[in-house]
Every structure is written in C-alpha cells, then in structure tokens.
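Dear colleague,

Following up on yesterday's call, I've attached the two folding results inline so they're easy to grep. Please treat them as preliminary; we haven't cross-checked anything against experimental data yet. The first protein's sequence and structure tokens come first.
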Amino acid sequence: MKTERTSESVFSTDVLIIGSEGAGARAAIEAARHDVDVICVTKGFVAKSGATLTAGTDIDVDSRSISEVIGMEGDVRDSKETFLEDVIIEGDYVNDQVIVERHVEDAPIRIKELIDWGMKVWGPTLAPGHRYPRGIYSTGVEVAKALVSQLRKCGDRIKLMENIMITDLLTSGRNIAGAVGINLCSGEFILFKTKAVILATGGGQRIYPYSTAPEELTGDGQAIAYRAGAELMDMQFVQFLTSTFRFPPITTMSVNPLLVTGVWLLNNRGDRFMRFWDPSRLESSTRDVVASAIMNEIVEGRGWEDERGGWVYMSLKHMPDNIIDDFANKSFQFPKEFWDNLKQNAIPCFSASHFFCGGIAINEDCETSIKGLYAAGEVAAGLNGANRLSGNAITQTQVQGAIAGRVAAEHALNAKQEEIDSDQLNNIKEEIFSPLERKEGSNAIQLKRRIQKLAWENIGVVRQGQWLEKALKDVDDLKKECSEIAVRTQTRVYNREWLDALQIRNMIQVFEMIARGALMRTESRGVHYRKDYPNTDNDQWLKNIVFKQVKSDMQLSTRPVKITRFKPPSGQAPYPRR
C-alpha cells in the first residue's frame, strides 16, 4: 500500500519542527539560515499558545555579560563560571555539566539577539539561588513578538502550520523517517516525510489538576519520543511553583514573585514554617524547597482545605501600607485590586506544576539517541538537573533552539530521506481513529480528570513509596481505559473530546515515567521530595535515571552524572542540601 493513499495529506521537508514558540521558533529561524526547507507545526496558534507566552519573565545571563555584552547595568564581579556553579548547585548536582557549559557560554549572544529583534527589557533582577542579578526582565509576549518578527523575515523558507497535533514519529531502524498528525480543524490525517525532526513541545504539566502552564502541555513530545525508542532522563523531576486560586477558582495563578518581597507563609497554627526548611532564606528560598515545604504542611494536616484542595496562607499584613504600595507600583504581574486585598487579607497558597526538569536525553548538540531527532527547551533533559533556577527557561529555549536548528539543518543537508514503513503508518492511523469508531467505551473527559486526581495524590510534590506503588498499580487500569475510549461525537472537525483522547495516551506514559523514576530514586533531591527517604545521598545517587521503551516494556537504568568542571560534595545530608 502506498503511504500517499494511507494519508489524506503528505508533506515533504528537510526539517520538521514540532512546537512554534520559544525553542521551536528559534530553531526554525536558525534552520532557515542553512538553506533547507523547514516546516514548523503547532498544536495551537503561532505566538498565541505554548508556555512561552505565560512567562513573567526574568531571562538569565551572567551579570558581567549583562554589562559588557548587552549594555545594561550588570555586576562585573559575576562570571560565566560562577553562573555555571549556581545552576549546578541549585540543580542539586545532577545536571549534565557539558550542557550547562554550553548554556552559560551562549546565553549572552542569544538574549542580545532577542533585544536586537525588538524585545523590550528592564532590570536586571536578583532571584533566589543566584549570587548576582542575572534576570533580564521582560514578558513572554515580548519574547514571542521578537521571534515572530524574525519568522516573518524568513518568508517562504519556513512553512508554519497551526492547529496540527503530531501524534507519533516514524522511524526506519534507528533513523528518523517522518511524523504523523491530525489537523485539529478538519480532522485530516497528515504524513510528514522529513530527514530531521526537532521536538520543542514543552513539558507535561497538565497531567496535574493545578498548573501554571497552558492546557496544551500534556507531555506530547516526551511521549512520542519514548514510543519512537528515544531515551528519556530524570522524568521524576517536576518543578512546582507557589500559586493561588484565580476567581472564580477554576484556574491557578503564580504568586512566586512575591516570595522575595518579605511575605510570610503561615500554617494553621500561625507558624512561619519555612524556618524549619531554610532558616537563612526563609520564604526567599528556591522554588523546590518552598513547594515541598508548603505541600508538606498540607499533607501533615497543618493547612486549610475545601472542595478546591488544600493550602497555606501568604501574608503581607505585617508590612506598612506604603511599602506594599511601592511593591504594587513596580509590579506588572498583579492588578491593583490584588495588592489592595493583600493589605487586608492573607491569600491561599499551594504548589502548582510549573516545569519539567527531566525530559528527552540529549547531548550538548541537542542530539537524541535516534539519528535525525533533536530536542530543545523544556522537553529536553540535562540542563536543570533536579531543579531549575528562576530565569533559565527562556534562556534555555534560545540557546538550545539555535543549536538544534543548526545541527538539524546540517544533518538534513547530508542525509537521505528514509523510507516510510507502511505497516508502522497503518498501525498508528488505526490507533488514532479508533476512539471515533467505537460505539461505546471509556469517557475521555472523565478519564483525564481521573489521571489528574491520581497524579496530584500520588506523584505530586510530596512523595512516599506506598503512594508511588499505588500510582503504578493504577497505571494498568488507566492504560486499559485509554485503549477503550469512545468519543460521543464522531465528527472529525475540531472534536475536543477526540483531542483529549489523543492527549490521554501521552499523559499516561508521562505519569508512569514520573512514578517509576520517583520510586526508583530512594532519596530526596531538588524537586523530588520523599518523606520516606528525607536525605540527599551523594554517595549513591549522583546518577541520572534513564527511561527507554523496549518492545512494549518501560525499562529504567542509571548512568553516572556527567561531571566536567564542578565536583559535588560527598556523603549524605538532610534535605534540602545546598
């Protein structure tokens, strides 16, 4: 059978980029400079979807380079070496140090490019975990505008395709051959023939019910790479961020920037519980420590709870009104009404999923274990170790996006198009359309909510062996229900329930990787806090956990952390070890 008949549309390109925002847009711009054909697809709309738009955002560059390269008021006592050390220390020493070296080296020129392309900036600011002010302040909208301006200049060298969900990668042996997906507006089945694929799909935060990320981040890139046979790494490291309820309370909003203003976090006994976790920095500690502390108070019954969930309180009541007004005048993230309320009332706070520190295993050139497959940005592992410093996310997208775009283009110029396996293609198509063809079966919306509830209860911020074991027992039931999903409306045209069904398969695989990795890692480190193993163990766990699909089984192994310039301390220490 010819693949053109199996597929309703066929596109051929040199480089296919999945994801169009921070990392994806930068990769497309770079690839187009190398005289190759580029197609960039996104599950939503270009510059109107993905995690980049939600960024606050501080963008990290070493403070000396902020002064000498970018021309802002940085601190020349800082250096790239000191920046590297801070990334590794706050990543709890399990970063890939070669990737970190590349990050701190390339950051100044990549962020200067964004500024030259029109991104408005101010600052810099000093965030927890940094020894010097490295956060060049801007917004996700400004980042997107700068990147879109360059995408437009590339003209017909880049074909942008919106509302396309890539469901699977196609391989030939250990080489990339293409990808398949669905046009969400029409339901059309699409085949992409390509010599290189760059995954820039962000994280999988939406497997949890409370998240700072947009709804399209369901672990698509991690899952499709896993099914294609690529190695993933450290998927148990999921970062959570201090957040509050929006009103009406159906979504969440990060209040993490307030932690450096002198707020108090209080439990139901009126205790500032951060004194037990980080006596020197208190509420100004790093994200991993604050998130673990908040959720531990809730788990141990020292928080508040209603039908929405549990929380502690954040208060500024101890401060004079004129100081709070000064904070408000400098803030662009929170409206005046928010600050007026804080003068009188404490606000509920809890930890919401924010960033995936683990992901697809790459080297410093963004190459994965499959030839012709690359990953950039949050979808890729190695840079952040067990905890991401504030401000490194946008920088990561620009550094790795440029690297992946160049390396993928160079590969495509010298590679041949691999043959498409028609059996592989037909099997994928059958699985994609099966929810539309069943007359009865599992309900996708209900199953998605169940996954999120189980994730929150068993693989969330605070973990224990018995909860993780329960999560893995639930995985088998979730997989069975996923294989039996029947959507109630059979139309292909923007069928949201069908989209949920396709995303659920990815969510379950990400769920399983987090649970298995967290159970295997018998210690606490960074964003991974286990109540039954509360120490950080540098004698036994200076290792990365690697995930790989072998036949139909998920296999886990470990490999030593890649150490090149900064040697971690030895021994065990109570969490949080810094």
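Below is the second protein, in the same order (sequence, then structure):
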Amino acid sequence: MTIQGGTEMKRVWKRVIAVGMAAMLVCGCGAGGGEQTASLGEQSPVKAEQAKETAEGSSEEAAVDTQYPEYLNLDSFRPIVKDGEEVTLRVLTMRESIANSDINENWFVKFIEEKLNINLEIEEVNESTYEERRNLMLASNDLPDIILNMHLSANDMVNYGMDGQQFLPMSDYISEKLTPNLYKIITENEMAKAENTAPDGKMYTIPNISASFPGWGDTLGTQRVFIDKRYMEAAGIEKAPETLDEFIEMLREFKALDPASMGVDEIWPMVSTWGNDKEFLQNAFGWVISDVGDMTTPAWDVETKEMVIPCSQEKYGDYVTLLNTLYSERLIHPDFFTIDKTAARALYAEGAVPVLCDAAPYLSIPERFDEFIAATPASSKWCVNGVTRKTPSYSLGTVCISADTEYPEVCMRLLDYLYSDEGSVYRLYGCAEGSEDSMGIIEGFSLDEDGKLIFADVASGKYESDFDYWVNAVELSAGGNGPGDEGKMKLYSQKLAGVEKPEYPKLDLTNPDDHYRSICYEAHQGHLVDGLPSMYLEAEQAARYTDLKTVIKNYVNTETAKFVVGQRSLDELSDFFDELKNMGIEEYIEICKDVYADYAGPQ
C-alpha cells in the first residue's frame, strides 16, 4: 500500500503511528526502563497472577514461558508440540484446479504431522465450492482452527473479526518469543501491518510477503494476458497492439482465420479463467481496481485522478457497449460470465484461444509456454498511457484463526514457521534432495549446472511440471497465495541446495515460470500504477454500506449481463444510470469517498 509521492489515508496513518508507539513500548521505554517481551496486540495474554509473579522478581524467561501451554516448545520448531503430547488442528484450505492428489498424503502435510508433531484434519475446497462453504461457515459460526485462502476481504475482518468476534485477534499473540518471524516482519514493515489492521487496532489476519526483484513482486503488474505468436504470424501481426482499438482489431483478425488451418473447430479470440480479460479492458478505460468482477468496488481513475465507483460513471456505458460488441462478434466466449478455470484451460490446451487470459501459459500448455508474448497495457481515449495495477510487495492476508480454537498458540506458532527461512521453502518447494526430511515421499530439489532450481520428481517425469509437483506432491494450500515470505523462499532454497551466498535468481527463459515473468516484466514497465489501499469501514458506516452495496451490486451484475448478451437494449443505458440513482448510488459513493478522503493517490 506504499504510494510513491502520495499521502496515505488518515486512518491508515493513525494505525502506523500506533504501530510506532507499540514498538517504542516493546523496546523498553516504559517506567521500569528494563527490556520487555510484549505482544503486538493491545492486550497481553499474561494472566494477572503471572504478571504479579513477574513483578515480584521472577526471571524474564520464566515469566514469558508461563504465558504459554506446557506442551508448546518455544526453543525451536522441531517439534512445535512437545513429544509425547497430542494436538489436532482442523484446517480448511482452497486448492488449485489441477489438484488431484489426496492432500493428506502431500509431503508438507506429512512433515507437519511427523516433524512438527501437529495432527491435521483437513477439509479442502476448490474455486467452484469455496464461496458456498465460506458463507456457511461464517453464518453457522462453525469455524475450523485455521482457514486458508478463502478470499476474505478487509471488511470480512471487520464484520467477522472486530464486530463478530469469530476470528482470533492474531496481533494479541505476535511476540518475539512465540512468533519471532512474524514479530520481525510486522515491526519492520509498518505499512504491511497497517494494511492488515482493522479499525480497532487489531490484526485478524497476517500479511503475505512478496519477493521484489525483476519479474517478481512489485516489479510486475497484475494483468495476465498472453498472445499466441502462432496466431500473430498467421494473421500477419508483427507486434503486440498498443491501443485498445488495435487490440480489438487484432481479435477480429484472429476470428477471421480459418479454424482448420489452426487445427481447431472454432477460434475463440479471447478467453479468461478468472476475470483477467475484464481487468485488461477495465485498465484501458483508466480504472485501476482490485476486484475486477465487481464494478461497484472503489477504483482509482488515472485520468480524473480520484477514487470512483466505475459503474456510476458515464464511460461505464462505453465499457458495457464494448463488451456487447465483443460478445455479438463472438470475440469472447458465449459463457463469458460463467466459464470456469477448467473449461477455459481445456480450450487453451486445444489451441483454440489466441489471447489466453490466465496466470501463465504453461499452466495449460506446458509444451508451448515459450510461444506467447504478454499483452502491453492498452491506451485509449479514456486512458492516455496504458496502465496495470502494480503488484504490492505485501498484501491482505489469506489466513484466519477461529476465535474459539482450543489451541491459539499452536496455530500462531505453526503460521510463524511458514515465515521462517525453512518454512518459507518447505511450504511450496519441499525439502532439498538428499534431506532426511523427504521421508521417502519426495525426491527433493537441487541446482543444475546453471544454478537453477530443479525438482527431481519433475525431472524424472513423475509430475508434468513444477506447478503440478507443488500442488499434488507438496502443498497444504496454494503456496503462491498462502501465508509466507516469498523473498526468504527464493534465497533460502538456494542455501539448502548448497549455495553459500544466495542471490535472487536471474530469470531463465527456458523455465516456464520464469518465461511468463520475463514477458510480463517487459510488457509492464512504464505502465505500473498503485491501486487503492484496502477499504476498512468504521462500524457505523458498515451496515449502511453493506445494505446499499448488496442491492446495487446485484443490480449492476444482472443488468450488465443483459446488456452484454443482448437481452436488454443499449438504448436503455440512460435508464440504467437513473435506476442506480434511485437505489442510492450517490449515498454509496459518498460513503466510499469518506473512507478515502485523505488519499491523494499514486504519483
């Protein structure tokens, strides 16, 4: 949420100031002048009688240890729960669409159970089932101990954490003793803490930390649009389009090609797995938005330089008209609004999609990953210089803990392990080749002669790709989206493989993952713009905001779909905007403006 040259929101800065004050207290600026161990929360879990014992002269180490259960090992992570003791945690996690393994047999799950001595009862969901399961979980207040990757928002932290008290205030448990890795990250990254802090000053989630070097983290935008060079050659197109008009014309030229000549029954010029096509088009209209599927979400307008609600602007009618054109000319798929990742990737694999809108080409076409270029963010009359939202170096967390868990300290200690050097690597990559930690389940990773990380189980052909290996052999959750420190993962994996002085690796264009990062890096430079920081509503605003948003969002989604597929005439767009006013869109906008009143925007 660092905005270069801009002024941060007043509420965010208040939280940052609070962090600084907390840090002063932790560093021992209290009346006693002595060194103290404290949590980052407003309240310490130390009981009154333990505090009294400390005041009467107990050693600092003894006082700290009495805060925590006797079965918890505070000296190391191996094990987290002392030998001879038994703790079972319930975990809900969302997995990737290619997941086909029994997650209970994945290596990292076995490692947690065998080496960290924590039993896991795991329930897994996927992209088509997670929303229903999440809503049921929150409505019934029947939460597992740990919730991973369930797409919870900042307002969810307010509604179910601060107000509903269903989520554990994790900041109350972040301390040098219990969670040394998280403590260090939070105290050294004030804005990362602010992004994950609710209005009551507590953290109900913890930030994901991204690596930052060419091709990673904030050197990339969030656009993921890739153009098949085979189709470009067949259509006589020599370079990626730079304007929105050129991009649309390219789609038309792809559609005009003979499908048989491309080895398919029908050509679908642009297909997306999860709104990547919408994001590309929205950016061309000047909107930098975090939730591309919700046009009632506050966005930054790069031309007017203000926070806007896209569906309320006049140019939203132009956006809807464009979608209608794409749909009627069959430049996008008939299931534009409903197609899922599995169906989209099946079309990619057939070679029927010239413009592939997915996280990376190799996820569906590993054998042709290097036959794509990344689309350049498109300019238009609504956006003079094409833009893409800059990927932040930290983000709102993807993990929560139930407030009713019997084992809050164990949960926090386990999550802290994911931010350690070893845990950051093990959660996604597994262990190094030859390590006793392999437990005979995986072969591990090593470095090739060029110093690149290779996975033995992929090299042997047991798994089709690194991604397949991570998902179906190692992970507890989708590692790229889960809690952890990506920078540590990149450096410490090299150290485990024998490199004495690790450095961030250079991109290897023969590696599928590095290749997509390289082409995105090249396409996105000069177009990166920070998005809005997370939106935390004050308690008195939240109810009205939710009431308005529920009605407006449902209406916008329904009517937009009608306009696009031709069930409602585009001549009625003026009526659409009038209907929004009758629903309270102006009040809704004012609430959002109040939240961002002191936000001056990116440079």
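For the second protein, one point worth flagging: The chain is about 40% helix and 10% strand.

Best wishes,
A.L.
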